[in-house]
Amino acid sequence: MANGYKYNEEEILQLLPLSRTEKNYTEDMETMSVIAGGQGHSEERTSALKPAGAKKTGPTSTSPGNRDQTADLVRIYLKDMGSYLLLSREEEIALAKRIEQGEKAINKALARTPFILDELVSLEMQIRKSPELVNKHFSLGEEELTPESIEQKKAAILDAMKRIKTLNTRLAKMLEECQSVLCGLVERSAMTAETRVVMVPGNHDRATTLAMQLVLAAHFRNTKGVSVDTSALHRKYIEWGGCLIGLTHGDTARKRLPNLMQVERKEAWGRSVCREWHHGHFHREAQTVTEGGVTIREHLSLSPPDSWHAIEGYVGAPRGMDSYLYSQTRGIRGMWRATVLDG
What we know:
Blueprint: H1 9-15, H2 26-36, H3 43-49, H4 64-82, H5 89-111, H6 114-129, H7 133-137, H8 147-190, E1 195-197, H9 206-219, E2 226-228, E3 235-240, E4 243-248, H10 257-264, H11 266-271, E5 274-279, E6 288-291, E7 294-298, H12 307-312, E8 319-327, E9 331-340
Parallel strand pairs: 1-2, 4-5, 5-7
Antiparallel strand pairs: 3-4, 6-7, 8-9
Helix pairs in contact: 2-4, 6-8, 8-9
């Protein structure tokens, strides 16, 4: 059937443990023929379908009960198969892309777990002791491998593992430094005003952002005048008098932010006179636009370009952080920028 041949009932019966006298599902055979879409078959093809030593006539030794059960199952299968259309070329491509994206998402999620990082560190030690394990755990390509090429690939794999181990160590240091900086900022703010901490996750730090929220919430749990939003939402809102301020990273739903504010905060939208969104994500010069009565402010990035941004050409933008002052009745009153000087 995969090669465009059209199989009839007689041929199918030769391959099934059924009596050749059972002719009660010709309709299913016709359905199967339509799905195959072929124009006929040759005698050679028919004979190739028959198992070796099969007799041309006479019933099989299968019991009547089993024959009836198998016939029913085959009939159900054929009818169900005939109710589905084959995928078009475009649909096959779209499905393949979805599968590929899903596999990448799974691999990325697994690669960020402590268990996988620990396994990589352990595997590095094993490979250094027994280099032949490289062939067991890694695909080295289809080209002919020589001792020299295997040694080169082993060196590249070990170098990548070393960098991963370094990054894992840097993560612990980064979290420690982040906790120190954030706690210091909140403490200084709380000395002069009631402080509400609201953080939104980025596309590279969703887990660490949630962790920092919990750390801050625990650290300031008994501090009067300090509250920490620990929700894991991608979009968060602050209502300050007549100001409705939305916060998001900006990697998703960027073009729908004005409409989303109206839908997600209906009552606050009606009460507000100043409506603004703040987002980052793009690692470029900050921009401000107004859409549908909502001001959308894009923020600078504090971090330097990583390898991906450098390759894609997202370089040269100033680095810094903006601060805004709002009046409960008159909206935004001022803005300050602290820049990061390279070199």
